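Appendix B. One record, verbatim.
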Amino acid sequence: MTAVKKDNDMTFEAALSELEKIVRQLETGGADLDASIASYERGMALKKICADKLKEAQTRIEKITLSADGTAKTEKFSVSD
């Protein structure tokens, strides 16, 4: 299984957890330059996975509202709501 395929199968929580570990590691500054660059690049890939998963979830969420006659209806979720 390739890394890209494996990344596409990651859950939001798994990607966020790994990203948090990378951030803590980079903040300590204990790694050499090449390892730090590799960690940074991995972190950017994980950030994209998280953003994509959030966007996907947002498109799946519907807001339930009541119409003027009192019946429930659903409409697409909007961040501005």
